[in-house]
Amino acid sequence: MECKQKNNLKYCNCTYDCNKKGICCECIRYHREKKQLPACYFDNKTEKSYDRSFEKFLEARK
Ligand code: SF4
Fold first, then answer.
1. Nearest CA to ligand 1 atom 3
2. Which residue lies with its CA nearest to atom 5 of ligand 1?
3. Which of 27, 32, 34, 44 most suits a substitution to test ligand 1, by most atoms within 8 Å of the C-beta?
4. How far is Cα of residue 4 from the mean position of the Cα atoms in its chain?
5. Which of 11, 30, 42, 46 is the most exposed place for a label (fewest CB within 10 A)?
6. Which residue has the least CA distance to atom 6 on ligand 1?
7. Which of 48, 30, 31 is nearest to 60 (CA)?
8. CA of 1 to the centre of ligand 1 (A)
9. 25-34 pLDDT per residue, tens
10. Measured on CA atoms in the order 43, 23, 5, 7, is the torsion positive or negative?
11. 22 HSE (CA, 13 A, CB side)
């Protein structure tokens, strides 16, 4: 199966300088291992805090 990185980038709101952009499998694995969520779980403003914690996710949903 071919990597769909180019297409995935259309849906990526991450502003952090990172080489995993659009490679969703690596992005999710990276943040899951840190007990975090990837940028696309956050609105654009919250994403810019670079706090990917579950707590930040819940706080942003209030
Ligand atoms: S969400 Fe995290 S792993 Fe994914 S592209 Fe952004 S900084 Fe990289």
1. 27
2. 21
3. 27
4. 16
5. 11
6. 14
7. 48
8. 22
9. 999 999 999 9
10. negative
11. 10
User: What is the spatial distance between Cα 62 and Cα 56, in angstroms, rounded to a whole number?
Assistant: 10
Question: Ligand 1: residues within 6 Å at CB?
Answer: 14, 16, 18, 20-21, 27, 30-31, 38-39
CA angle 38, 28, 22 (to 5 degrees): 80
The pTM of this model reads 0.91
Contact (CB, 8 A) for 18 and 38: no
CA distance 30 to 7: 20
